[in-house]
Design goal:
Number of strands: 6
Oligomer: single chain
Order of helices and strands: HEHEEEHHEEHHHHHH
Strand content: 15-25%
Helix content: 40-55%
Strand order of the largest sheet: 1-4-3-2-6-5
Distance between the termini: 35 Å
Length: 224
């Protein structure tokens, strides 16, 4: 599913590096669950050492990576087959899903997805592990994504703490909006906005909202 996916979103084909060798973690997991394919896709991981973004398409059989100076737009990512597949996720606990994907926990700006394809398990094969449950797939994917964050110089212990709503509130405060104005824009109460801002300050170990905004801007979680 992922071969050629980076070519759909990265304008400069020369920026894409491919190899016909898979990722050991994905290969081992595919073998354990007897899957036809196991794949990981991520986009817009900010590199800690530079103002660049990393995009990856990995499977048990191949690997492709690209680095761009600008993030891939949300519209481009939404058009991809794997993104649409993850949006239709309903879990695979019944074991009858032949192709499934799930969005992973991210640090705010990047997109990360883990998915698999599998053939129906014969009823007579009692020893077959079967496809992973939704909880297993999410755990495996979050673990691997944390590894990818660390590889790019991001402290994954802090990478998953800020929620999307907290980032929304910080983004509007960074744009000069008051808590009340942000509440109107987001369609929530001013009290809820203040709750999210306070939560973000605590998670980021900041005493003021200004410090929290500066920290998420420095980490490229929001742009101003």
């Amino acid at each position: 599913m992922l071969k050629g996916v980076l070519a759909q979103i990265v304008p400069d084909r020369a920026a894409i590096v491919e190899r016909d060798k898979g990722i050991a973690f994905l290969s081992a997991t595919r073998s354990i669950y007897q899957l036809d394919e196991l794949f990981y896709f991520c986009a817009n991981i900010p590199r800690h050492s530079s103002r660049a973004f990393v995009h990856c398409a990995f499977s048990s059989d191949f690997a492709a990576q690209a680095i761009t100076s600008h993030p891939i737009s949300a519209e481009q990512l939404a058009s991809l087959k794997i993104t649409k597949l993850s949006k239709r996720w309903k879990g695979c606990d019944s074991g009858d899903a032949s192709e499934s994907a799930i969005e992973l926990t991210t640090r705010g700006r990047e997109l990360a997805i883990l998915g698999f394809s599998s053939s129906p398990t014969p009823a007579t094969d009692a020893d077959a592990e079967g496809p992973p449950s939704s909880a297993e797939l999410k755990t495996l994917g979050d673990y691997f994504h944390s590894h990818m964050l660390r590889r790019n110089g991001i402290d994954s212990s802090d990478a998953l703490v800020i929620s999307a709503r907290e980032l929304d509130c910080l983004r509007w405060v960074a744009a000069g909006k008051s808590a009340w104005e942000a509440s109107v824009i987001l369609g929530i109460s001013e009290r809820t906005v203040r709750f999210h801002l306070n939560s973000a300050r605590e998670k980021l170990n900041c005493t003021t909202t200004t410090q929290a905004v500066a920290k998420v801007v420095a980490q490229q979680l929001i742009a101003i």
